[in-house]
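Project standup — Tuesday

K.O.: blocked on the structure for the chain from last sprint. Re-posting the sequence here as requested.
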Amino acid sequence: MDESTRTIEVRSGGALPTVGLGTWKIPDEVLPTLIPDAVAMGYRHFDCACDYGNEVAVGKGVGEALSGGQVKRDDLWITSKLWNTYHHPDHVRAACERSLSDLGIDELDLYLIHFPVTLAYVPFEARYPPGWFFDPDAENPAMKHVDVPYVDTYGAMEKLVDDGLVKRIGVCNLGTAMLRDIRAYARIQPAVNQVEMHPYLSQQRLLRYCQEDDITVTAFSPFGASSYVPLSMAEAGESLFDDEVMKEIAGIHRKTIGQIALRWAVQRGTVAIPKTQTVEHLKENIEIYDFELTGADMAAIDGLNRDRRFNDPAEFGEAAFNTFYPIFD
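H.V.: unblocked you, prediction finished:
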């Protein structure tokens, strides 16, 4: 049994479980029972966000697990994220407090800036979560950019640590240039950079940079296209589950392609947060610590890289929200 890869020690202290449950797109009615089921199977890491619109339901599930005595709060790692409309320092604390209230907890284990995207403020009473449109009912609805320096937002995040609302802070969707910039001014260095990462988007140079600078990388969408085909952000033919190399390696190890993808993610030193709504897949996704990929396996999967990004605001912003908003170029 491979115990050494079950957690990663992050720079600000604490052991981050290397497989967590991503809650993006999980319906409200599923979460109150799915979370306790996950805890019973050994999950201790839950990745949430204001924008997912389901933190109240996640909170119900967490509350059920805690009240049932399955775990103590300190046994869990709960992450949430600051949404794009709350980047101004005047709004950061209120946004964090809203997530804490919805999740039913007093402190987050990790709070991340969701995107390097700054959108006009939308009050809670007007719409929550606010989404991408500034005014969905406008004749031509669009995203509304505002100029808020990232350094100001990050400084407000640091204050959350000072005030005991969050244990650690981090970022999402950042490349090396912005990470270097943060390094120059941050009083509390980012513990985590959460980015899209899978065999078709391995981001080897970004991963190497983060590891050399002691920033833990969390890989969202570790199965690649599967979450994006229903959103018309990927083609069915891009599915990792149809890849012949992945099929061959899965057959050799008598594991599923999903398990191979997650084992690859963990073995290269990242944290993976697959999403599922079923108990069957919950069990499958966490059963990756009883085997190891060979060096040849790892190299073969590394070789699948296509630099294929599915979650790109330059693409979906224009297609879905009538706004061209590149952040990776």
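K.O.: great, moving the ticket to review. The domain at 7-319 is CATH 3.20.20.100 (TIM Barrel). DSSP finds eleven helices and ten strands in the chain.
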